[in-house]
Amino acid sequence: MTKTELEKLAVEVRKGIITGTYSAKSGHPGGSLSAAELFTYLYFGEMHVDPANPEDENRDRFVLSKGHVAPGLYAALALKGFFPMEEMTNLRQIGSFLQGHPDMKHTPGVDMSSGSLGQGFSTAVGMALAAKMDGKDYRVYCLAGDGEIQEGQIWEAAMFAGHRKLDNLVLIIDNNGLQIDGDIAEVCSPYPIEEKLAAFHFHAITIDGNDFDEIAAAFRKARETKGQPTAIIAKTVKGKGVSYMENQAGWHGKAPNDEEYAVAMEELRKAGEALCQR
């Protein structure tokens, strides 16, 4: 898939995020938008998953440790074919299988229920260890937030993964610099992230997480790395793609109103049209 094709898909992921949070009148658009390229590349450039066989024991696994950005995951799963994109209008509705946090029992394509920050990565580490113990070739990917890595459980899991040399494991950190209370460096700084993960025996890479060339190169390097897990620190823009949301901590957990929804969807429509003219 070409870079332009991936960029077009990322725009559609963003449209799904805005549609879902607007329809729900709640949710977390900021961090979902910042990770749109990461979700897109995982499902359309990296992971071996098949919507026709979602329980394949040899499929790659994905754990969304920062479960509140489920709208981004759901939009990517819909585009991949796990369910219709129209389901995004049912986000967070009673009876919908698209709840505010991922639910592995009811949502097609979701490998692990998550939402309690810090816990998802531990699950991903366990999945990677299971693959090694069972002699399986599948890989495990986990997306965590940069505010989330203030949780101690993240570092317990990292210590175990490094010690066990889980080279089938990739931790991706969405380093958009903002959490619900503001700048992560002011709330409780996790920096320097790359150096800390390297000290836990990870092959650590820092990239522009909104650039597909850098994302692709990082995942290629992760596949080539043997004897240690990989951490990709993806520097992103919170609210990316919607001008009034970009770099605004207030959009961590707030849905757009009617006027804001119209502006966001128009900006994304224009972004998609510009890509079609390339």
Topology:
Blueprint: H1 3-24, H2 29-34, H3 36-46, E1 61-64, H4 70-80, H5 119-134, E2 140-145, H6 152-163, E3 169-175, E4 178-179, E5 182-183, H7 184-188, H8 193-199, E6 203-208, H9 212-224, E7 230-235, H10 258-276
Parallel strand pairs: 1-2, 2-3, 3-7, 6-7
Antiparallel strand pairs: 4-5
Helix pairs in contact: 1-3, 1-4, 1-10, 3-4, 3-9, 5-6
Note down, in words, how this protein is organized.
The protein is an alpha/beta fold. It has 10 helices and 7 strands. The strands form 2 sheets. Strands 1-2-3-7-6 form a 5-stranded parallel sheet, with helices on both faces. A two-stranded antiparallel sheet has the order 4-5. The two termini are 15 Å apart.
Beta percentage is 5-15%
The percent of residues in helical segments reads 40-55%
Poorly predicted regions: none
| Spatial order of strands in the largest sheet | 1-2-3-7-6
Q: With helices defined by DSSP (H or I, 4 residues minimum), what is the helix count?
A: 10
This entry's quaternary arrangement is single chain
Query: What is the number of strand segments?
Result: 7
Computed over alpha carbons, the radius of gyration is: 17 Å
Mean pLDDT: 97
Order of helices and strands: HHHEHHEHEEEHHEHEH
Q: How would a crystallographer describe the biggest sheet?
A: 5 strands, parallel
Structural class: alpha/beta
Taking the alpha carbons of the first and last residues, their distance comes to: 15 Å
CA-based shape? globular
